Structure formats: structure tokens, C-alpha cells
Amino acid sequence: MASWNSPLQARGVEIIMTLSSNYDNVLAVRAGRQARRDCRAKLHAQGLGRLPASDVDRLFEAHLDRLDVVLAGGGRLVGNATSIADIAVAAQLDAIIRTGARRERIRARPNISCWLGALAG
């Protein structure tokens, strides 16, 4: 530590460093609480926090139906080349297939299954 003119100055710096460290911890806890509140608010705004499971299932089916229609031509989501849109949507569907109970609903759509297979290479 740096040399100070008096023990009082050294003790003052020590106190300030301790208070600063404690203040940072308090800020981190408050930031965590705020982040949780923000996340809950966003989920609620998106409908995930307020829709019954039956509505979530119905909307999931509707999205799959739309996606299957978009992919009916055998192309990609945006144009004919693989884009970030294909990668993003395929990653989400892959996560559902690997971990969710809705995997058979995805596999039941022939255009989506073909598209996922083509992307997997």
C-alpha cells in the first residue's frame, strides 16, 4: 500500500475502500433484483406470463403451421440461401426437439423436417 503522511490518512483510505467494496455489493444485489423484475415484466408483456398452457399450445401450433407453409417451396426463410434467420429459428426448434414434449409436433410437419435436415447437412 502507498505510504501516507499519517496513520489517520491510512485508516481513512482503508475505511473508504471498505465502504466502496460494500457499496458495490449492495449495488450488485439491487441490480439483480431489478433484473429479475425486468425479466418478469418482459415475460408478462410477451404473454408468456399470462397465457394459459392451452393458448400457448395453440399459438405454437399456429406458428408451426405458418413456418411449414413458408418452407413449402423447399427454400429458406429469407431467399434461397441460408441466413441468420434460418440458423436462429432452427436452433430454437432443435432445442425443443431435444428437450421438449412438443418434438413430435415439429417432426409431423414435412416441410419443417426437410428444412431442418437440409440445414443439418
Structural notes for this entry:
This protein starts with 6 loop residues before the first helix and ends with a helix. The model has no long low-confidence stretch (mean pLDDT 79). The longest helix has 40 residues. The chain folds into two domains: 50 residues; 69 residues, no CATH class. It contains five helices and no strands. With 121 residues, it is mainly alpha-helical. It is 74% helix and 0% strand.
Write the SSE topology.
Blueprint: H1 7-46, H2 53-70, H3 84-99, H4 103-107, H5 110-120
Summarize it.
The protein has helices at residues 7-46, 53-70, 84-99, 103-107, 110-120. The protein is an all-alpha fold and 121 residues long.
Q: Overall mean pLDDT score?
A: 79
**Main sheet summary:** none
Q: For the record, give the distance between the C-alpha atoms at the N and C termini, rounded to a whole number.
A: 60 Å
Chain oligomer state: single chain
- Uncertain runs with pLDDT below 50, 5 residues or more? none
Number of helices: 5
Please state the CA-atom Rg, rounded to the nearest Å.
26 Å
Any idea how many domains? Answer: 2
How many beta-strand segments? 0
Strand content: under 5%
Portion in helices = over 70%
Specify the overall morphology: elongated
Q: SS-based structural class?
A: mainly alpha
Q: Secondary-structure element sequence?
A: HHHHH
